[in-house]
Fold this sequence. Notes:
Blueprint: E1 5-10, E2 13-18, H1 29-43, E3 50-55, E4 60-62, H2 67-75, H3 79-97, E5 103-107, E6 110-112, H4 114-117, E7 124-127, E8 132-134, H5 148-151, H6 159-166, E9 170-171, H7 172-178, E10 183-184, H8 190-198, H9 203-213, H10 221-233, H11 238-243, H12 250-261, H13 264-277, H14 282-296, H15 300-311, H16 329-342
Parallel strand pairs: 2-3, 3-5, 4-6, 5-7, 6-8, 7-10
Antiparallel strand pairs: 1-2, 8-9
Amino acid sequence: MTSFIQTQVHGSVAEIVLDRPKALNALDLGMIRDMRAALTAWRDDDAITAVLVTSSSERAFCAGGDIKSVRQAALDRDTNSIHAFFSTEYALDALIANYPKPYVALVDGHAMGGGLGVSVHGSVRVVTERAALAMPETAIGFFPDIGASWFLPRLTGATGMYLGLTGARVSGADAVFAGLATHFVPSGDLEALATDIRGAGSRADLDAALARHTAPAPESELEKQLPEIDRVFGSGTVTDMLARLTADDEWTKQTREALSTLAPSSLWITAELVRRGADQTLEQCLELELALGAEVTRNADFIEGVRAVLVDKDRNPSWNPPSIDDIDAEAIEALFAEITAAV
């Protein structure tokens, strides 16, 4: 079978190149397994001192997981395939988060959903002015996963709740401000940085390469909006948050529209998941997400959401229930209680 990742070793630095450009490097199960195998081998190889992750696509680092295949498995009632996909992906995310060597992801272009799983969990996350990061799962009747319930509540202020609920895309500058990224490098300097990293013989060489190419991030729109984000998303239910969006500016209009049109059940589930994640370890978050995913992928909203966004692409999903006002909060609480008792 064709592998959609390339692996190379440059002296003591190993590199993974995400190489599925026609799909914007969307992660299928084979890619996830190949990445995990390579990282496991290099973790235990004393000759390897760091790992670099790059993309062969000019448009994207990684557009997420291959969620269309998960939808098809849900339609086929193939729960084993769904579990295999998510459990393998989450194991990769945990491996990256606990990697004992520098793991450097160069994000230039789109990084969505699962693309954050293979970047944000790494120790060094480089973004450019071309970077666009998001967790857009509530648009497809799902919820932010890949450990997002762990990293979202640990972002600056209430930005994690805001990003998780609305799926808003953020720039490279925003990513640095919020804590999704560690370094900003101009896109034109990224290949020179990659070349220097490939030639790094030690952690000191790696740090020196990053210092040479890192630049001050541009002004962050997210930072300017933070007081309002904290006011709206800092507490309460999704209904409470929507009720606070009363201003007439463009950000408020866009945010109100998002909360009014995205999958209502997904919004309530996401809000509860992010709140719980603030007090849990990454491993606990991944375990909860895996159990929750098994339930949510059986829901008609997931089938419908993926259809509307990724299959038919009409962007006109029909949610059930259709409005956040119709959500049964007690049913959401019961769902979490049942899952928490089982994991």
